Amino acid sequence: MTWNKGKPHRILKNDMGRVMRQITTKQRKTAIFVISVLFTATFLLIGRLAYLMIFHSEEYATDAKELHERERSIKAARGIIYDRNGVVLADNKPVCTVSVIHSQITDPERVISVLCDVLDLSEETVRKRVEKVSSIERIKANVDKETADYLRSFELDGVMVDEDYKRYYPFGTLASRVIGFTGGDNQGIIGLEVKYNSMLEGIPGKILTLTTAHGTEIPNAAETRVEPLAGNSLTVSLDVNIQRYAEQAALKVMEAKGANHVSLILMNPQNGEIYAMVNVPEFDLNDPYTLNIEYAPKEDTSLSAEEKNTLLNRMWRNPCISDTYEPGSTFKIITATAAFEKNAVSLTDRFYCPGHKIVEDRTIRCHKVGGHGSESFVDGIKNSCNPVFMEIGARVGIEGLYEIFERVGLMRKTGIDLPGEASSIMHKVENVKAVELATISFGQSFQITPMQLLSSVSTIINGGKQITPHFAISAKNTEENTVKTYTYEGETGLVSEKTCETMKSLLEAVVHDGTGKRAYLPGFRIGGKTATSEKLPRSSNQYISSFLGFAPAENPQVIALVLIDEPEGIYYGGTIAAPVIAEVFDEVLPYLGIEPEYSEDELKMDGIGTFPVPDLVGMSIEEAKKLLKAYEFGDVYESGEGTVITEQFPEAGEEVKKNTNLILYMK
Ligand SMILES: [Zn+2]
Fold it and tell me: Taking 80 as the threshold, does the pLDDT of residue 11 lie above it?
């Protein structure tokens, strides 16, 4: 120690003062530092809290609740889709969802091995989910009921098997691009399933279970169950039987002609209800992610996810509404309508076809090389003569033509209730010169969809009424109460009554003895028009053969359009497309209650006509044989041992077709 002598107090005082001053400065600095840290921290915490409270309150509330409540959702049954006669087109199949609750699993290794075996999953996948510490973990959805029941029989702790639904399409491929299908969460992906998703989907329910903070269910605690609300059912205008007739006819011609695909639409031209929309090859709605042989790559190459997606989208595409094409000669119906509406032609006007027409510096040919020579307008449409239509197109002019296109709906979408409808592609009016006008007049140098053509011709033959092609008719809830009736308003008077009558009889003449004669069916009055469209580029020499037909011609109840894409060999619409419509109408017209009425000439044809069955009961077989000579039965069968006829089939008085077989019972 240092002993300091003299003036100790002062020294002390002075030194102490210095020391004290030093201490105070240091402490103050520390205190200020500590206080500022505390302030900053508090400030940050308050800020963070405010942030969490404002922006994440729901999330945290859910987290807090999850400690005590476990929620399992119950899928709502999706609404059923019915055809016009109540036949189920889209249904639900009961399936199950398998989940695990981590905290309840008592034997994880056994759970993993059973789940892998029964559900056919890899151990890696299952282990990850079983070992994950979470409230509930989904293992597999869409497990069929049988497998689910088998799994339940193991009575594994912590494994939940919940009832669920999967969309099921009883007809598989039927009308695949129209009906569409749903994804993993039951949401619509294409077709009516996506268009009417909000009507069909329903509201899912939930099961709330009280648990401890560790996830163990509290015994005897009330389970809260919020029942799901099933979706509304939808009735559509499709008719399964008509769709089938049409599909068979389309498949037959596709195979016979080695075509890429065939589209066929049947609709009521009076109100726009679509009876059938076929695009063969169709795909399987119960397995929509497997490429059809027609869409899969020819060689066994592995596809990237992107490539497969492109091909799937192509397979799911609906060419009737999503693809545009040059309609060709079926479009002459529109040009002729414009000419009548604009008083630019009369039925008796004479034309001359030398096999071509020179328009400015171009020679545009008729399909008949030597030309049709001198002909009336009626002959012109029966012959589908290009020069006649170039001539009347020129008389009407582009403004007049476009005005009619506008009226019959070719300048806008049809408004059909399916997603993905394409618009027509037309020249701007100022870009249409004489050559474009000439080609437009016979259906070239612009593009429309098949649905637009069908819809616009409907307006011409139904007396000038705008129609909206559609499927949806009504929606009902589970109590069978109608919740919505779909209505489709349309303008009237778009085409004059006079033009409508003229067009119907002209188009009947085309089928009676013109280029459409292969669509002729004895007993029925059918109107129609053929077309052979060149696909672009023209140098490819690929064609679309088509035929548009309707019946009965005087009061059309059904209109149909068939398109055969890239047929091999003969490709003329009149030769290969018209018979398809004849075949379909032969089945569909009687089905729709349109009975044949034979003309005198038709009755003379082999096997045509009906007659009433005579009463043969009580006669001997000899007497019956004599009488039957006057009737055109097919084969007559005798049944029984006796000599007197006691019963007959068909019965007396019944109206039967010629060549019907007759059965006689003897005693
Ligand atoms: Zn000609």
Answer: no
